[in-house]
């Protein structure tokens, strides 16, 4: 795990990478945001475990969960793996809190698979977090959301971002997540970009502005 911990940091962002990537692979995003030095923020970028991924012919790679197919919601994310990974990230949250970081100063963020785990964790987290940022992603176990969502999640600032031309996680899957969250009574900010399964420059400016608003700058 990469842990960027500047002196005086009172805020933290946990960044969760996509399938086959790593914390190091997502680290350039943190640099590109160019957050002000007057607001020192701790950035944690954990690595998913290596596991066989069915849609990649069973080859082993870093993945927060297995994907059997994108045809049915239950196949998009093996639920037992999702829950294991979410428990691991909740443990990382608890560690940050034990170190003195207030929950309301911690943001959970993720791209693709990482966004799935970020949302699954944040929506069930008993503490009120600073925000949830999900990029090019979808919901795991959507039918369980209403029964498992925490009371703290009802006031959670949420932002979803998706590429119109995403050929890995279709835009419709992002809209499905948006509709599920709104049906659960949650409000969220939504952004679309003329891009594929990636992060584009205009999106960086929006991420930066959203983070600064959440972290009180």
From TrEMBL:
Gene3D superfamilies: alpha/beta hydrolase. Keywords: Hydrolase. InterPro entries: AB_hydrolase_fold, LYPA1-2/EST-like, PLipase/COase/thioEstase. One of its GO terms (molecular function) is hydrolase activity. The keyword RNA-binding does not apply. The keyword Hydrolase applies. Pfam families: Abhydrolase_2 (PF02230). This is Carboxylesterase. Belongs to the AB hydrolase superfamily. AB hydrolase 2 family. Residues 9-211 form the Phospholipase/carboxylesterase/thioesterase domain. SUPFAM superfamilies: alpha/beta-Hydrolases. It comes from Aeromonas lusitana.
């Amino acid at each position: 795990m990469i842990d960027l911990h500047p002196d005086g940091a009172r805020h933290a962002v946990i960044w969760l990478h996509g399938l086959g990537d790593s914390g190091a692979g997502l680290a350039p995003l943190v640099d590109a945001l160019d957050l002000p030095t007057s607001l020192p923020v701790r950035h944690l970028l954990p690595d998913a475990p290596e596991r066989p991924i069915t849609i990649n012919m069973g080859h082993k790679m870093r993945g927060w969960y297995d994907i059997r197919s994108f045809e049915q919601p239950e196949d998009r994310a093996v639920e037992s793996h999702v829950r294991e990974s979410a428990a691991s990230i909740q443990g990382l949250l608890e560690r940050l809190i034990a170190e003195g970081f207030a929950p309301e100063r911690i943001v959970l963020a993720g791209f693709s698979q990482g966004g799935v785990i970020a949302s699954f964790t944040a929506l069930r987290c008993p503490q009120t977090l600073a925000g949830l940022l999900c990029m090019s992603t979808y919901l795991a176990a959507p039918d369980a959301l209403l029964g498992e969502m925490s009371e703290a999640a009802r006031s959670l600032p949420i932002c979803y971002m998706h590429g119109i031309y995403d050929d890995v996680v279709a835009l419709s899957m992002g809209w499905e997540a948006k509709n599920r969250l709104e049906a659960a009574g949650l409000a969220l900010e939504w952004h679309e970009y003329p891009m594929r399964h990636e992060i584009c420059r205009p999106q960086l400016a929006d991420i930066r502005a959203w983070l600064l608003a959440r972290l009180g700058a």
